[in-house]
Design a protein that fits this description.
The chain has about 180 residues and is an alpha+beta fold. The chain is about 25% helix and about 35% strand.
Length: about 180
């Protein structure tokens, strides 16, 4: 029995199939955490006008070119207070500043600076995009949502005195009855 030789078109089809399977395997088998791992972004409550301090637990495992976005969102209604982002070259071993403030974390939008954030309850979502890892894979994305935190209104000493006087007045009125 005589075997037929593969034609050029058959070789192209077979090579395309093999490359397609390899690309799909790489796309789904290699997660973003191969390059970057974000375990948590925690934020403590603060008072209006003060810096918003973040506690970040993350690790750059391998160098990559990437970008990030930071979105500060009101819990009530979900409207965006500020949104920042930029492109960076990430490298293992790089240290974050002490402390990490929201003004530093989201530096490209001045509305994210602590002194510019009005009283309310918020969350911060940070997403990192790893641009075309291994030069053939599609972009990989890692996102992390912070805990809910509150920016309380600043109470001045004058406001405290006024509130104390109001309470004393109410007490006196109650005593007269």
């Amino acid at each position: 029995m005589k075997q037929k030789a593969m034609r050029f078109g058959d070789w192209i089809m077979a090579a395309s199939l093999v490359l397609g399977i390899a690309w799909l395997t790489g796309t789904y088998a290699v997660p973003a955490t191969y390059w970057y791992e974000s375990r948590s972004v925690g934020i403590a409550d603060t008072i209006e006008g003060n810096p918003i301090i973040l506690t970040v637990d993350r690790k750059v495992k391998r160098a990559f070119s990437g970008s990030y976005t930071v979105t500060l969102r009101h819990m009530a209604g979900g409207e965006v207070q500020c949104e920042a982002g930029g492109a960076l070259r990430y490298k293992p071993g790089t240290a974050l500043p002490e402390p990490v403030t929201l003004a530093w974390w989201a530096w490209s939008d001045e509305r994210c600076a602590g002194e510019n954030v009005p009283p309310g309850t918020y969350t911060v979502e940070t997403c990192w995009t790893i641009h075309q890892p291994l030069m053939v894979l599609p972009n990989k994305v890692v996102c992390n949502l912070s805990n809910a935190f509150t920016v309380r209104p600043m109470v001045t000493e004058e406001q405290r005195q006024i509130d104390d006087l109001k309470r004393q007045l109410e007490t006196l009125k109650g005593d007269e009855r």
